[in-house]
Amino acid sequence: MKTNDESALKIAEFLLQIKAIKLQPNKPFTWASGWKSPIYCDNRVTLSYPKVRTFIRQQFVEGIMDTFGKPDVIAGVATGGIAQGALVAQEMGLPFVYIRSEAKKHGLTNMIEGVVEKGQSVVVIEDLISTGGSSLKAVDALREAGCDVKGMAAIFTYGFKTATDNFKKSKCKLITLSNYETLIKKALQTEYITDKDLKSLQEWRENPSEWKK
């Protein structure tokens, strides 16, 4: 998972500042999966801050060009990747589509919304990678439509081994603008967390499903 260190630290700083990411090792959050977690991430918050939104968009474009070259189409994963992907597509002057989490139950029963053609190259935009499961469903849908998926770009990843394995198995290259390790580094630098919190935060990342049970 390629990440530019300097910009990754800047994005981590922004995410903490605007409370898109909250760290509470002593008052854990409960995820929908039932996991206890010291971190809560909602990257949709970035859309409300023009300076942050613009920086993220620019980093996406640079990362895509450096890693994949210019694709034919940008695709966003519903729902968090839709607005981010549309911003990137606009900046790059490219068509945009988005992929639903599941096919519509009525009408054309589309999973891909928008126009994409067989043989077109696509880069997928996501806001957050946890296990990678739902993100990779979007990749599968595009491949089934005959697209050449160059890879995926996301704002943030927790860096779980499960996600790394899933992307490897799916033969899908992933780049992220920031990540959990960088976030913890920035949180320590800015005294958002203490050295005492660090052990708990590292333990969660190593075994999130069993943490605090």
Explain the overall architecture.
By secondary structure, the chain is an alpha/beta fold. It has one domain (5-206): Rossmann fold (3-Layer(aba) Sandwich), CATH 3.40.50.2020. The protein contains 7 helices and 10 strands. A 6-stranded mixed β-sheet has the order 7-6-5-8-9-10, with helices on both faces. Strands 1-4 form a two-stranded antiparallel sheet. It is globular and about 50 Å long. The two termini are 30 Å apart.
Topology:
Layout: H1 5-17, E1 21-23, E2 29-30, E3 36-37, E4 39-41, H2 50-67, E5 73-77, H3 80-92, E6 96-99, E7 112-113, E8 121-129, H4 133-144, E9 148-157, H5 161-169, E10 174-179, H6 180-189, H7 195-206
Helix pairs in contact: 1-2, 1-6, 2-3
Succession of helices and strands: HEEEEHEHEEEHEHEHH
CATH fold-type name? Rossmann fold
CATH architecture: 3-Layer(aba) Sandwich
User: Mind describing the biggest β-sheet?
Assistant: 6 strands, mixed
Low-confidence stretches: none
Q: State which percent range the strand residues make up.
A: 15-25%
Specify the oligomeric state: single chain
Query: What class, by secondary structure content?
Result: alpha/beta
Helical content class: 40-55%
**How far is the first residue's CA from the last residue's CA?**
30 Å
The level 1 CATH classification is: Alpha Beta
Please tell me how large the radius of gyration is.
17 Å
Q: How many strand elements?
A: 10
Mean pLDDT: 93
Count of domains: 1
Strand order in space, largest sheet: 7-6-5-8-9-10
Compact overview of the structure:
The protein has helices at 5-17, 50-67, 80-92, 133-144, 161-169, 180-189, 195-206; strands at residues 21-23, 29-30, 36-37, 39-41, 73-77, 96-99, 112-113, 121-129, 148-157, 174-179. It is an alpha/beta fold and 213 residues long.
